[in-house]
Batch of 3 targets.
Target 1
Amino acid sequence: VVAFQSLAANLSALDTGNSNQDVFSRNIQIGQTESNQTYLVSVNKDGTGGGNRNSTSPVISANGNVVVFASNASNLNSLDTSTTQDLFARNLQISQTAANQTYLVSVNKFGTGGGNNMSSNPSISADGNTVAFVSTASDLHSLDPTTNTNIDVFARNIQIAQTAANQTYLVSVNKDGTASANGFSNSAVISGDGTT
């Protein structure tokens, strides 16, 4: 399976007349002449078309089942109504027309919406269960002060309900375990088994 971003409007029957970048995937075990086999990963929450803003930077799990990507779209998930860049995950085993199946990875600590600032640079475990990422948001974890503007590293197990509060792990926690680091942390990479 290959995941990619594209401005093209003729890759998927769901994505027509859309001038935004979208994320797609294609199983290359399928013949390249077979029609309508490219999956629109950045499908809107209704399963009817692409996102209303750009979606970029896809990464795919080693098992080929889950794609994580960044997006400024506000119509991919019912919890996220802002155009701040968030991270999302889509299980490719689920029909692309199934509504409300895209997971908001960068959900706030209350489980009520996206983070209050940009999240980016996702890394996904081999089994597709855990995503590590960086963010300047200050509302993803209770240990991260609301006045913090540093980039921090977080991890989220996407098998946990996205509405579950306080389930995002602050990776760049200080040595005392009391708050986030006092400088920028970046370049998150997660192990294959998702534990480190």
Note: The longest strand covers residues 55-60.
Target 2
Amino acid sequence: KRDVSEDILKRKTTKAELIGGETAMILWNLIESHISFEKTLQESNIKTQRIMDSILAGVITIDGKTHEILDINPFGAKLIGLPKEEIVGKICHKFICPAEEGKCPITDLSQEVDKAERTLLNAKGETVHIVKSVKKVPFRGSLHLIEVLSDISEQVKAKEEMKKALDIKTKFTAMAAHELKNPLTAIKGYLDLVLD
């Protein structure tokens, strides 16, 4: 398509001379503007897609009425554990939300989800700990939901390990205090006897 447009632009003067007059020049200027706009739009779409693909969080676009998943970036597909092609077109509550159909927290229950800790059940049945935010975005006359999912599984795992270590430390400290208290009590008793 781009080659044809550039070819048309190269032949602009010749065609304008054939058609004749200012009307032809206005028409060709409009065509040239349209081609330039189309090229700029295409470059913008490529740039936006590259940005989406590089984000280290799942970004999912959902139709606010049908709840169909319209788009998902690679990190989001990785969190779910399926290729993008097997996710796009599906209904969101089967993948990213445990809510039943007709009970969407955002569109049906008017709740806000902003940086809320949640769990996601991936395709393998594994639990993925996430922080989830959802924003309503009007786009081309309809409502879209933009969901951002950040994987916090490593932080949750580290927190659980720290809690276990703290529990072990607490038990050890209590046991050590008890074990030290018994001999000290005996020594104190013997010391009292010697002093009497």
Note: The chain has a mean pLDDT of 82.
Target 3
Amino acid sequence: DVRWHIYGGDESGERSAWFDKHLADQGAADCVKYHGQIEYSRFPEVLVSAYGFIGMGTAAIEAAAAGVPVIVAIAMESRPLTQGHLHQLPDGSCGEPVAGLPTQAIVDLARQLITMQDADYQALCRREQEHALATFEIEPRMAAFERVTHSLVDAPPAARVSAAGRLINVLGDYLYQRIWSLGNRASGALARFRAG
């Protein structure tokens, strides 16, 4: 028995009314619930009972960090496609399309998730959590920034240019992540489903 809970968007309530009617017309009102926008402070309580998460940006990172398997939605993609779980994407990727990485239907990956053996599911939870914490925590990013900064101090001029380029890349990556994440937190929808 799978339930899908959808959160995000819709401050006006118009989408929620349309969605509720559409679900009722399709006979899916018992298994899909559109909650609309929730307060960010309620996000952890949503994750507590989540068996899986479909979304992108900061919400996907936070779900994975909480040990919830994430199927990463592709930003600006109108079709229900994914490029995989968060831990399967290149470091720093949390929803933007990754060139050269194949896509698959979200429903196929969701089906795999809900039919996994418990040991495989627990292993996936750990991989997602470890990846999110290792990749998106601020401390490792700041440590990389400090390493590059310190390498500039006693370096010859040519090496300073190279190190400065690395510093710009580290800072650019960090800022891109923050701006991308803030944009997704403000406008992204998150969906969770729970087996049971």
Note: Strands lie at 2-7, 32-36, 52-55, 70-73, 81-85, 104-105, 190-195.
